[in-house]
Amino acid sequence: MTAQEIIQQIEEAGREFARAIGDLRDEQAIREEKARVLGKKGSLAGAMKGLGALPAPDRPRVGEALNRVKGSIEAEVERRLGAIAEEALEVDLARRVDVTLPSRPRRRGHLHLLTQLLREIEEIFREIGFQVATGPQVETDFHNFEALNMPPDHPARDMQDTFFIEGGQGQLVLRTHTSPVQIRTMLAGPPPVRIIAPGVVYRRDDDPTHSPMFTQVECLCVDHGVSFADLKGTLLHFVHRFFGPDIGIRLRPSFFPFTEPSAEMDILCLFCKGRGCRICKSTGYLEVGGAGMVDPAVFAACGYDRYDVTGFAFGFGVERMGMLRHGVDDIKLWYEGDARWLEQF
Ligand code: FA5
User: Fold this and answer.
1) pLDDT tens, position by position, 174-198
2) pTM for this structure?
3) What is the pLDDT of residues 258-289, one digit of tens each?
4) Same domain, 46 and 84
C-alpha cells in the first residue's frame, strides 16, 4: 500500500466514526464506537500495520494523518461525554428541592390517659404529705381478705368476684382491690402512716362500666387522733382538685368489713350539678368509691394498738373517675389502644 492509500484508509476510518456516532446519546455506546476505531483491534490499528513497510520519507505524512484523525475522534468523544454529563446535571437541578418548605409534622405519641390521671392523682396526694406505696397483683388470701376482716366464710367476699390461682403455697388470688396494700404497709412498719396505693386489680365483672381488670387508688392514713372529719376533709380536697371547686361530695352510710363506720363516697353529678339527670339516675350524685375509719380488727391483724391510733382509708376506681371527668361511656375504650380515642386526651 502506498502512503496515500494508507492516509485514505485513515481518513475513511475517521469519517466512518463520525457516521457511526451520529447522534448517539448513550455513554456506553459512544465508548464502544471509540474502541471500534481506536482500540487494539480497531480500524486505525489495521492502517498502522502498513506503516512499517513504507519508505522512511513517507512515514511522517501518514503519522501526521493518524494523529490528526485520532485527535479529532478523541476530542469528539470528550465533547459528547461532557454534553451528556451536563444534561444529567441540568435534569438534577430542574428537580431541585425547596428547602424552605415546612417539613412534614412528625407524629408524636403521649402518655395514656390512665397514666396521666394516675400521675395527677399521685401529685395531689403527695402535696398533702402522702407517699406512694405498691403491692403485688398476685396476692395471698391473707392480705386480700383475711387481714381485712374477711375470714374464709365471710359473705362480703361474694361482692368481690375473685379470680383464684391454683398451685403455690396457700390460697393465691388476683387481688380484687388495692386494700391489701394497707395490710402490707402496716405490717412493714409502725404508725404514723400516710400512703396512697395506685394499682391494677381484677374481678369477674364485665359490662360497659365494669371491666375484669381495672385500676384503683387506695388511701390510708393512721396516726394519733385521726378522725372522720380528716377523712372527709381529705376526700373533699382531692375532689376539688380533681373535678373542680364546685363539685361537692356525699358520704352515704355503707358497709365494708375493714372499716367501721363505712361510707360509699359519691360526688355531685358532673353532668347536671345535682339537679338529676339520666347519668346519675336522677339522684344528683355519682358513686366513685368506698371509705371509712380503719376497723380495729385490721389494726389487730397488723400488730397496731387499736387504743393508741386511729385511721381512715378509702379506695376508688380510676377509670370511673376519668369516665366522669371526660364523659367516656364505655370502660373498654381504656384498654383497646384505639389511637382515635387516645389522641383526644
Ligand atoms: C373496694 O374495692 C374497697 N376496697 C374500697 C375501700 C377502700 C373501702 C378503703 C373502704 C376503705 P368497691 O368494691 O366498692 O370497694 O370498689 C371501689 C370502686 O372501684 C368502685 O366504686 C368503682 O369505682 C370501682 N370498681 C369496682 N369494680 C369495678 C370494675 N369491675 N370495673 C371498673 N371499676 C370498678
Assistant:
1) 999 999 999 999 999 999 999 999 9
2) 0.72
3) 999 999 999 988 888 889 888 788 998 988 99
4) yes
Give pLDDT tens digits for 61-82: 888 888 888 888 999 899 989 8
Amino acid letter, 314: F
Inside any domain, residue 7: yes
Q: How far apart are CA 107 and CA 110, in angstroms?
A: 10
In this structure, the answer to whether residues 195 and 269 fall within a common structural domain is yes
Banded pLDDT at 123 (limits 50, 70, 90): very high
Domain boundaries, position 42: 3-94
Q: Is 334 in the pocket of ligand 1 (CB under 6 A)?
A: no
CATH number at residue 129: 3.30.930.10
Name the residue at shortest CA distance from atom 21 of ligand 1. Answer: 289
The pLDDT assigned to 168 comes to 63
| Alpha-carbon span 126 to 42, nearest angstrom | 92
Pocket of ligand 1 contains residue 215 by CB under 6 Å: no
d(CA 224, CA 191): 9
42 and 155 co-located in one domain: no
Question: Per the domain annotation, does 99 fall within a domain?
Answer: no
Query: Is pLDDT above 80 for 15?
Result: yes
Residue 216 alpha carbon to ligand 1 centre in Å: 7
Number of domains in the chain: 2
Does residue 252 lie within any of the structural domains?
yes
Cell of 79: 465533547
Q: What is the largest CA-CA distance in the chain?
A: 136
Let me know if 238 is exposed, middle or buried by CB neighbors in 10 A (0-12, 13-18, 19+): buried
Beta carbon of 205 within 6 Å of any ligand 1 atom = yes
Q: What is the mean pLDDT of residues 10-16?
A: 87
Give yes or no for residue 143 CB within 6 A of ligand 1. no
